[in-house]
Write a structure and sequence with these properties.
Bound molecules: FE2/S2 (inorganic) cluster
Radius of gyration: 17 Å
Strand order of the largest sheet: 1-2-3
CATH architecture: Alpha-Beta Complex
Strand content: 15-25%
Number of domains: 1
Number of helices: 6
Oligomer: single chain
Helix content: 25-40%
């Protein structure tokens, strides 16, 4: 049976549901205070048996292999869940078949959990700008107060 690292490696080799979702109903973005990695998750809902459920989920990440592997698993696992059911899922739940998150990797799963929660509860979103491409946001980020001063003799 594969260990956690092997499963992460396999999920990383072909991550699923990666990329922006143009017609998403909800978007959530978080950054990890632990490592500075970022994740964005898009959700599309549909009506099934009179309930509003997640039809599709996708993600973009500037994160480690574990975060990407968990997001890949999570986006599949979320299909068919109501928003309330999705809210109940912990980082460990979202890791699904990858297995138990090692202590050093718990925050990687929490990055996925955070992006999901942020998408489900936009009222808790501090960034109210429309959210499209994570890479676009990073490239358009303003310089953070670095001033280059030429040296003169
Ligand atoms: Fe940053 Fe995994 S090390 S999310």
């Amino acid at each position: 049976m594969d260990d956690f690292e092997t499963k992460v490696g396999k999920a990383m080799a072909a991550p699923e549901n990666q990329g922006e979702m143009a017609d998403a109903d909800a978007v959530g973005t978080v950054g990890s205070p632990e490592c500075g990695d970022m994740m964005r998750m898009w959700l599309k809902f549909t009506e099934k048996d009179g309930k509003k459920v997640i039809d599709r989920a996708s993600f973009q990440a500037f994160g480690c292999q574990t975060a990407i592997a968990v997001a890949s698993v999570a986006t599949k696992l979320l299909q068919g869940k109501t928003a309330e059911e999705a809210r109940q899922l912990s980082a460990q739940d979202l890791a699904g078949d990858l297995g138990s998150l090692p202590p050093m990797k718990i925050h990687c799963g929490q990055l996925v959990e955070g992006a999901l929660r942020n998408a489900l509860d936009p009222s808790e979103t501090t960034d109210t700008k429309p959210q499209n491409s994570l890479i676009g946001d990073i490239h358009s980020a303003k310089p953070q107060g670095i001033r280059i001063v030429p040296l003169t003799d």
